[in-house]
Amino acid sequence: MDLKSNHASPVLTDPAPINKLRLGIPSGLLALLPHSQPGALFSSSKYVTIPRKKTGMINDVRSNGWLDAMKSSSPPRKKLIKDFNVEAALDDADIASCSWVLKYPSALSSFEKIIDRAKNKKIAIFLDYDGTLSPIVDDPDRALMSNEMRSAVRNVSKYFPTAIISGRSRDKVYELVGLKELCYAGSHGMDIMGTLSHSHVSNDHSNCIKPNEKQGKDVSLFQPAREFLPLIDEVFRTLVENTKGIKGAKVENHKFCASVHYRNVDEMNWPTIAQCVHDILKDYPRLRLTHGRKVLEIRPVIDWNKGKAVEFLLESLGLSNRNDVLPIYIGDDRTDEDAFKVLREGNRGYGILVSAVPKETNAFYSLKNPDEVMKFLNSLVTWKHDQTKSVIHRRSIE
Ligand SMILES: [Mg+2]
């Protein structure tokens, strides 16, 4: 399967969320935005229209919380203890950690409980990439998954529908994972490709399109933010140009979003990089800022995220609105919280947060690091394999 994009494809768009924090714009301007309709997830709809020339409407980075958000993208242990209201000495982080694990138990120690619920159900697996399948490293280009992890993901996909949902471009995450048998959702779910069944998708998804012959006849493409491609490309080039003087800054084009990594930027220069991105974004009211782990991400103002991508994939795989399906989503980032929330609502499935430190989350369970993710995936494979074997054995003696 060739996962290169087809740039001539139509797209489905959705209204923007009315959320001043997500938009990063002041409340006065919000009044100009159309409201998101309940149930509008899969409806054909209009783009958000925001007047372009409204200078001075976005506050300085120091007053609008950008810097605070940048600092909290990797919160110190002291802060975490305070957040969780744990009555512990400040140097007694272990107690805080234990308390957190009680609230979000390890998916490994809770494995029996998870598979107990999965009995007679079809499990669907959704996996983030960075920090989940690969370690977090200073250079995003070197965030490689191990062969053992690749083999674990391959084995999981033999038994369960499996999708990777990443903030990276779809082409890049496919290149890093390299498994043809999976669905891939790049750019936080705004660029989905996989063997999606059109028959299961509602009429409003009619602009799910078929890529060209080279990409495989069974493969479909869904790009809800396609119209934004030129805009993202333009802002990417401006970001590269304007941040080139900031040592350690790295700008990436994820096709439907652009990201500015400040992991390697001296903390003294964080205000400079924040101001730079802020100043550029002022000229792009149809784009918004989100905060990842030591990364500022610029995305289209549309009501689409990893949670919507999970719902879309479940629908297109014929797995939505069914009691016999258990979706499991594993991720480590703030952007994964949208997916955790979707699964938590209505008790549909399990979100598993990958984190070595306590964090507030919508997930049900936790895993400490990618090694534990691999153990969990291998446990699922072993369980399913044994289950399948015992069913075959039972049938043979009947
Ligand atoms: Mg991640």
From TrEMBL:
The keyword Ribosomal protein does not apply. It catalyses: alpha,alpha-trehalose 6-phosphate + H2O = alpha,alpha-trehalose + phosphate. Removes the phosphate from trehalose 6-phosphate to produce free trehalose. Trehalose accumulation in plant may improve abiotic stress tolerance. The lineage of its organism: Eukaryota, Viridiplantae, Streptophyta, Embryophyta, Tracheophyta. GO terms for molecular function: trehalose-phosphatase activity. Pathway: Glycan biosynthesis; trehalose biosynthesis. The keyword tRNA processing does not apply. Belongs to the trehalose phosphatase family. Its EC number is 3.1.3.12. It comes from the Eukaryota. One of its GO terms (biological process) is trehalose biosynthetic process. CDD domains: HAD_TPP. Its cofactor is a divalent metal cation. This is Trehalose 6-phosphate phosphatase.
